[in-house]
Every structure is written in C-alpha cells, then in structure tokens.
Specification:
By secondary structure, the chain is α+β, with helices and mostly antiparallel strands. It has 15 helices and 16 strands. Helices cover 39% and strands 21% of the residues. α1 runs antiparallel to α5 and α5 runs parallel beside α9. The longest helix is centred in the N-terminal third of the chain and has 20 residues. The structure holds adenosine-5'-triphosphate (ATP) and magnesium ion (MG).
Length: 418
C-alpha cells in the first residue's frame, strides 16, 4: 500500500482529470460508493473459484459479527448500488466511479495491495454499439495523453450455453494433460476450468497455448455481436487483435471481453480491462439487465505515462510573497487574497512564520515560484511591490499595487477576471 507523495500527486491529478473529463464528455455520470461491502456480494459476483475470492480479499468480521470485505473491484458495488437504489427500473445508466481497491496479492512493480481504479459501467444496454463506445473512449484517452505502446485485445466468451459446451471441451483437453497441471489448475479442472486459461504460472503457458478456443464454440447471436463490434472499431480506426485465450479473471463476463495491454511495463501489462456481464444484475437480485464496463489501473496508467516520456502540465507556485514586518504581513495577506480573486488559476504562496528577508527569499526560491513579491516598509510607503524574477535573468522591478494583478497576469500568461 503506497503513499502517493506530492512529487507525483500532480501527475495523478492530471491523469485522473483527463480520464474523468473524457468519460463525462460521452455522457457518463459519477457514482460514489462505499469501500466496504458484505463479503457475500463479491463471492456471488466475482465467483468462488477465482484468484480474487480464493486468495486476495481483505475480509473481516465487524463488531456485529457480519463478514465484510474491502472492495477488490468496483463492478459488483455499482450493480449492488443500482439495485438497492432502484436505478435500474426501466432506466439505463451510464456511470463512472474511481478510488482505491484492495487485493492481498504478492506485491511487485505494477501490482499492489491497495491500488486505484477508474471504472466505467453502462447498465441496460445490450448492443455492440456500447461495447464499441467504451473501447473508443479509451482510444481517445490514449491520444489525449500522448500514450503509445498500447494495444487492444478482444475476445468473445459467448453465452452461458455456448460456454458450457466450451467448458466440456476444456475439461477433456486438460484432463488429457493432467499430469502437467499445477495444483491450482487441477483443483479448477473440476470446478471452473476456464480459470486455468487465466493462470499466471509461466509453466502453464504451453499447455494453455494449445487449449481449445472459445471462438470455435460461439453461438450465432454472440458471433454476430462480436462481428458488429469489430466493424464499429474498424470504422472508428481503433486497431485490435483477437486474443482467443483472453478470459478475464472474474466469472461474471459473457460475450465481449477486452484488455488494453502495454509492453512498456514488464509483466504487469494490463492497463485497462473490461467486458460484458449481462447476467450479473439478475444474479445479484435485480431484474435481468444487460451491462458492460471497464476498469483502468491508475498506478499502471501513471507508470505508462512516465515510460512514454510524457509530463503533466506544470502546476507549481507562481508567486511567493516575502513580507518583512507586521504591517507588511497584513498587506501581503490582503494582496495575496486579491490576486487569488482576480488572476485566474494563479498559485500564490504567502511566507508563513516570519523570518529575515534573506531566509524568506530562500523559501521563495525553494517553492519553485517564478517570482518573489517583496513587501517591506519602503514598498508600503510607496504603495508598490518589488517583483523579483527567480527563474530568469530579468531585472527586479517595482510595480504599483494597483497594477499588480494585470502585470502578473501578463507575465504568467494568465487572465484577469472581472
Ligand atoms: P492482472 O491480470 O494484472 O492481475 P486483473 O485481471 O486482476 O489484472 P482487473 O480485475 O480486471 O485486473 O482490474 C482492472 C485493472 O486494474 C487491471 O487492468 C490493472 O490495470 C489494474 N489492477 C488490477 N490489479 C492490480 C493490482 N494489484 N495493482 C495495481 N493495479 C491492478
Ligand atoms: Mg489479478
């Protein structure tokens, strides 16, 4: 579980705001959810025989003896909230949410126990159009953020019926190579053979590579859905590869599944993953409601952003007030408030805790401000402020108090309000 320190929090805020603004621009609205849910919710939605439920959940009994779990993902909570708040009765919902998720994993680069997701869910839509939209909006994010080295993998898991036929074929295939399966896979063979395809064990990759593929078992409707999705992506100019072994690590998916992966982050390459989960709302006690969504790992997005050499727009301090003496401090506070009122987006720091002229100027320099604004007895008497450039060779000058907002706005490339 990481602290996100001030030297990177600006990048986080920038990435989150770009992602949020793009999702909003497609007509999705925010839903804020609790971090804790009844354990049962995740068992029923994610599936008993999955890595998350078997090994990764932070589960505990509360004072009342109820079993609660720190959410390992957001989709189950979105569906639970949709049902309990009546959001799905004859309505369609386009929602997003974000925040920390918790999984007891083996920590390594790109894999943490508290990590952050940005999550988008569309409930009440059954066509391939929404699947395409959810993918196309990701492509827009990558363009906006200047991210390269991301490729899109898609697959279809069909319906429960076609998956049952596929399951049979998988059991047959894996039973034939049982002596080479690892412990997890042997256990899953009887319960949930699809999960074997999702194994992270390198020794299992050869066996998985030659297993039967779901696409050969697809029902007609799912095949058409998949075809239409591919057509919409092609028209939008979004390149994809079909990965017939992409099954996703949660049980609730059907039809479309997809993953945006990068080769820039080592083995933790999945940046954004999602898919359709038409049966989940009903399974959790709501009326049958088709749904589809994705989740993006913010830590991996931040890492990829850095790996692509991209940088968030600078958001440092613009000006730092150096004020020596009590009356100068009062005046500096008033002028600082005035600048914050009038110069759009300016970041103004007032020197706090007094100190000599020299030590205040040192702090001004350390704040990375572009300018120090100097107020002493002489400046107060003259109704002006000393403007000292800290990052350039411009000369220090003296600005009339009345002209300060306009002068700074001009120098900083900002606008004056009102
Ligand atoms: P992985 O295959 O890497 O374990 P997953 O299939 O478990 O991923 P999802 O449950 O679909 O991932 O979560 C969506 C996204 O959240 C992933 O694509 C990834 O970017 C991110 N993510 C998942 N687990 C972690 C983690 N432990 N630490 C950081 N990011 C994570
Ligand atoms: Mg995982």
């Amino acid at each position: 579980m990481n602290d996100i320190l001030p030297d990177v929090s600006g990048t986080w805020r920038y990435l989150e705001s770009v992602v949020r603004d793009i999702v909003q621009s497609y007509g999705y609205d925010e839903i804020r959810l609790p971090l804790l849910e009844h354990t049962e919710l995740f068992r029923r939605s994610i599936g008993e025989v999955t890595d998350i439920v078997e090994k990764e959940m932070y589960t505990f009994a509360d004072r009342n003896g109820e079993s609660l779990t720190l959410r390992p993902e957001a989709t189950a909570s979105v569906v639970r909230a949709g049902i309990t708040n009546g959001l799905l009765h004859n309505q369609r919902q386009k929602l997003w949410t974000s925040g920390p998720m918790f999984r007891y994993e083996k920590p390594q680069k790109g894999r943490y126990r508290q990590f952050h997701q940005f999550d988008v869910e569309a409930l009440g839509f059954d066509g391939p159009d929404v699947d395409a939209e959810l993918i196309i909006m990701c492509a827009r994010m990558w363009r906006t953020l200047g991210l390269s080295r991301l490729t899109l993998e898609i697959n279809s898991l069909g319906t429960a019926d076609s998956r049952a036929r596929y399951r049979k074929a998988l059991v047959e295939y894996f039973s034939g190579v049982k002596s080479r399966l690892d412990e997890d896979s042997i256990r899953r063979l009887g319960q949930n053979p699809l999960r074997i395809l999702d194994s992270k064990n390198p020794d299992m990759q050869d066996i998985v590579a030659t297993a039967p593929v779901m696409l050969d078992f697809l029902d007609q409707d799912s095949a058409e859905h998949f075809q239409a999705l591919k057509g919409l992506l092609e028209v939008a100019g979004v390149a994809y590869t079909i990965n017939p072994r992409l099954v996703r690590g949660l049980d609730y998916y059907n039809r479309t599944v997809f993953e945006w992966v990068t080769d820039a982050l080592g083995s933790q390459g999945a940046v954004c993953s999602g898919g359709r989960y038409d049966g989940l709302v009903e399974k959790l006690g709501g009326r049958p409601t088709p749904a589809v969504g994705w989740a993006m790992g913010i830590e991996r997005l931040v890492a990829l952003f850095a790996a692509c050499g991209a940088e968030a727009p600078a958001a440092g301090t613009d000006v730092y007030f150096v004020a020596v003496g009590d009356s100068a401090l009062v005046q500096a506070f008033a002028l600082a408030e005035d600048l914050r009122d009038r110069v759009t987006g300016i970041r103004v720091e007032a020197n706090l805790g007094g100190g000599s002229f020299k030590s205040q100027l040192k702090r001004a320099d350390k704040s990375n401000a572009a300018y120090a604004l100097i107020l002493g007895e002489q400046e107060i008497a003259d109704q002006c402020v000393g403007l000292k450039p800290l990052r350039s060779t411009e000369d220090q000058s003296s600005i009339a108090v009345d002209a300060l907002a306009e002068t700074l706005a001009g120098r900083l490339g900002k606008t004056v309000a009102g």
